[in-house]
Design goal:
The chain is of the alpha+beta class. It has one domain: 3-Layer(aba) Sandwich (VC0467-like). It has seven helices and twelve strands. Strands 3, 4, 5, 6, 7, 8, 9, 10, 11 and 12 form a ten-stranded mixed β-sheet that branches. A two-stranded antiparallel ribbon has the order 1-2. The radius of gyration is 17 Å and the shape is globular. The protein starts with a strand and ends with a helix.
Length: 215
C-alpha cells in the first residue's frame, strides 16, 4: 500500500514497504561483493553530489546496485522537525538527530538504516547480520517513542547504479570499498566518517590528495 504525506515546507515523503523487496536485485554467487560494504569516494570524484561520500551498499548484483550516503546531513532539517512535519507525536524520547541526504535518486523517498535487532512486520530488509533497512512510518513512530532500533540513520533519497556501472566506476578509480563497521556507519561525527573509512584501508590522505592535484 502506498502512503503519501505532504509535510510543511513543501517536503513530500513517500513510503513504499513493497518497493525494497521488488527492487533489490537478484544476486548470483560472487557478483554481490559490495553488498553490506562501505563504498568510499576517492579525491577527485567528478560528480559533486558524491564528493567525500561514504555509502553503505544495500544491494549489489549483475542487475545493478543501491546504497545510502551515511555522512551528508541535510542542512536545516532534523529528526524532530521531520516528525512534526509528518504530524507524528514528538516526545522527550524523540531524538534530535540529523536527516541525511541518502543520494540523488528519488529524494522524496525516506529510508531508515538501522541495527539488526529491530524488525518491522513484513517491511524490514536485512542487509547483513547486524544492519537492516526499513521504509515505513511505523519505524519513525517507534524511534520517536523511544522503542525503535538501538542505532538508526534516516535518509532521504538513495544512490543507484545500472548493470555494471559501479564496477566501471571502481575500475576508473572513482571509488574504493571496505568492510562495514557499525560504529562508523552510525557515528554522529559526520565530518570525520569519510577520512576514517579511508584510514581503515591504510590510505594516506595527504599523499593521495597531492597525487590527485598533479593529475
Amino acid at each position: 500500500m502506498e502512503r503519501h504525506v505532504a509535510p510543511g515546507g513543501g517536503l513530500l515523503l513517500a513510503w513504499y514497504p513493497s518497493w525494497m523487496a521488488s527492487h533489490k536485485p537478484q544476486t548470483i554467487a560472487g557478483e554481490n561483493f559490495l553488498e553490506g560494504k562501505l563504498l568510499i569516494a576517492l579525491p577527485g570524484m567528478s560528480d559533486p553530489r558524491f564528493e567525500r561520500s561514504l555509502i553503505y551498499m544495500c544491494a549489489h548484483s549483475n542487475t545493478g546496485a543501491m546504497g545510502l550516503i551515511v555522512n551528508k546531513p541535510i542542512e536545516g532539517l532534523n529528526f524532530q522537525e521531520l516528525i512534526r512535519r509528518l504530524e507524528l507525536p514528538v516526545s522527550e524520547r524523540t531524538p534530535n538527530s540529523a536527516i541525511l541526504f541518502g543520494g540523488p535518486v528519488e529524494t522524496n523517498r525516506g529510508f531508515v538504516l538501522h541495527s539488526g535487532e529491530y524488525e518491522g512486520a513484513d517491511s524490514t530488509l536485512p542487509i547483513s547480520a547486524d544492519v537492516s533497512l526499513t521504509a515505513t512510518l511505523d519505524i519513525l513512530r517507534a524511534i520517536s517513542e523511544g522503542h525503535g532500533p538501538q542505532q538508526a540513520l534516516f535518509a532521504l533519497g538513495y544512490a543507484g547504479w545500472g548493470p555494471g556501472q559501479i564496477e566501471a566506476e571502481i575500475q576508473a578509480n572513482g571509488w574504493v570499498h571496505c568492510d562495514a563497521d557499525k560504529s562508523l556507519i552510525f557515528s554522529d561525527d559526520m565530518d570525520s566518517k569519510w577520512s576514517v573509512a579511508l584510514g581503515t584501508l591504510g590510505i594516506d590522505m595527504s599523499a593521495l590528495s597531492a597525487h590527485a592535484g598533479r593529475a
